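=== RUN LOG ===
request id: a7f3
mode: sequence -> structure
chains: 1
length: 313
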Amino acid sequence: MTSSTPSIPGQDTVGRRTTKAVIPAAGLGTRFLPATKATPKEMLPVVDRPAIQYVVEEAVAAGLDDVLMITGRSKRALEDHFDRNAELESSLQAQGKDELLRQVQASTDLASIHYVRQGDPRGLGHAVLCASQHVGDEPFAVLLGDDLIDPRDQVLPRMLDVQARYGGSVVLLLEVPQEQISMYGCAAVTATGEDDVVEVTGLVEKPAVADAPSNLAIIGRYALDPAVFEVLRQTPLGRGGEIQLTDALQTLATTEGEGHGVRGVVFRGRRYDTGDRLDYLKTVVRLAAERDDLGPDFRAWLDEFVAEGGTRA
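=== RESULT ===
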């Protein structure tokens, strides 16, 4: 019998299949107060599913069936949503509501979901670092709940493919108007032989517009090498007094080492932002309008509502 040499943290990710997803969900959701006073912002409904379920479904569709959520205080509803509710299921079954029963059970059966608490809200980098024990020495994906990616745009599998071929870490980039770049992490890049793949040569968190190296914003999907954990442990507090994941990626992009190097996939598909109140409302309208069951009637009502100046009672 042959024995294999165990991998070590920071080992190159070339050819290694990613199976784990990390979803940070410890934020306070202050932009949605008072709705989020007792309800996690991740549980706010987008039509008839909580926002967090869309994110988990995206991870599962990309082959990531081991999901770790980084939670905080008052986040018990997240665990309840993905847990089995035997009383509800029995009631639906007894009433013959088979389709509702199927939908309720679907959220329970999506993936193997685990939870760990982020004791102190010390930034996205710290939230990712909280996943180190669960992830170990494997490559992994990070999905932020504020960004919903349309399931027709399979960008996460593309990112995992780029990581498997080249190693290191991969970030998702989106071209935004230059005047908006200070709202995001920003990447300096050089071209590669692939139209949608770039080499990241530097990153900066929320730069001033005049100082931004490009208009390529980092949005909420990452495919990370486990080398990021050791870098995060050594990363000083950055913008806002928090441990910034962007700062750790800057180190990985600009220094030599096992598992270092960062590439970007430039996204040109459909993304929905649920982290801002106005964009959240736009997301609900767009997704509802596209539904086969709701869309026809909803679009007809919207046409009337807009035609009447948006003041119909």
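=== NOTES ===
Residues 91 and 97 are 9 Å apart (CA to CA).
Residues 1-11 have pLDDT under 50 and may be disordered.
=== END ===
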